[in-house]
Amino acid sequence: MNDVAVHRLGPDSPDAGLVALLTAYHLRTEEEKGVPVSDPAGLPARYRAEIEDPRAAFADDVVLVARHGDAAVGCLVVTVPADGRAELKRLWTVPELRGHGVASRLVGAALEHAAGAGARTVALSVWEWRTGALALYGRLGFAVVDPWDERDGLVCMERAV
User: Fold this and answer.
1) Whole-prediction pTM
2) 126 and 155 in contact (C-beta within 8 Å)?
3) Is residue 122 a contact partner of residue 85, using CB atoms and an 8 Å limit?
4) Other Cβ atoms closer than 10 A to 144
5) Residue 131 DSSP class
6) Backbone phi, psi, residue 124, to 5°
7) Closest listed residue to residue 99, CA positions, set 74, 128, 63, 126
């Protein structure tokens, strides 16, 4: 899909599309974990904070938003590198555009940003049932590493930049 562009969320960028993406991400994740909630009010406070004010929640991070025309169709957060390592979080694409390269573009932009910010490696964690995401990360050079997060079902991955 050549008409998808990845943009960095700036102070004047609209975030309504990002809010919808983060909301879908968190609601789906809770459902997959077996703790479905019907609306954002039922999410844990730390996730509600991301939805209510993504700029504040990710103030130290870089938020990337993929757009198809005027529509926000994907997002990804890149943390500031610490000890040479940045982390990817909250990768989400709208279901109807999965398999069209949106996530690959987001990850590519994130890797480029991380390298420019001084990261030597990029890490991420993904739930084991998200097989499509695991396959994507494998294709993009990420490898499973010893976990830094001990939650059941969470797979930790890393790659050099």
Assistant:
1) 0.94
2) yes
3) yes
4) 13
5) H
6) -160, 165
7) 74
